[in-house]
Amino acid sequence: MSSRRQAAARRRSKQDRSGSPIQGEPEFLLIGKIHRPHGIKGEVLMSVLTDFPERIQPGIVVLMGEEYEPVTIKHIRHHNRGLIIALKEYPAREDVEHLNNRGVFVRAADRPPLPEGEYYLHELIGMAVVTDEGQDLGVLADMIETGANNVYVVRPPEGKDILLPAINDVILEVDTKKRVIKVHLLEGLLPE
């Protein structure tokens, strides 16, 4: 086994399958998924899974699959709701056929900075959730993306998870320094 593959195997053993360290902030962020080859020149169809699709440009290095293999985007074309991309390291169709269903990642350290008062959703996981009346509800354990708005899954110390819609009437304040989310409970939000 090459030293490059051994290093990748060691990194994977310390991470869950999403590319995130077991504790703390993720090391890699999923930005797309390869679906299939397109044509004969080594292009592939990729769905875009990032809020910053404009950053997917020729010349950038992305990390392919669970091995986080670095590859360089050679060129892109828009296609329906996704992209057709060519990778410098894979010039022919035969070279990209094994990429089906692979994730396309970037390092979290390379993500663009956000304006003051904005945050990445993964930064909220593990934060304490308290009501505007001082009641401790638990910690933010997960988020569900829906068409209308996200739903925060709050895990209390005991009992059922609490589902809170991520709307201004419910999510009052996010303090990333103190790692606390202040919420207002509308009628019917607490499980019975």
Description of the molecule:
There is one protein chain. By secondary structure, the protein is mainly beta. The protein folds into 2 domains: 3-110, Beta Barrel (Elongation Factor Tu (Ef-tu), domain 3); 121-183, PRC-barrel domain (SH3 type barrels, Roll), CATH 2.30.30.240. It is 8% helix and 39% strand. The protein contains 2 helices and 12 strands. It has helices at residues 3-13, 93-96, and strands at residues 28-38, 43-48, 61-64, 69-79, 82-87, 103-107, 128-131, 136-144, 151-155, 162-165, 171-175, 180-183. Strands 1-2-5-4-3-6 form a 6-stranded antiparallel β-barrel. A 6-stranded mixed sheet has the order 10-9-8-7-12-11, with no helix packed on it. A hairpin with a 2-residue loop joins strand 4 (69-79) and strand 5. The longest helix is centred in the first third of the chain and has 11 residues, at 3-13. The radius of gyration is 20 Å and the shape is elongated. 18% of the residues are buried. Residues 1-23 have low confidence and may be disordered.
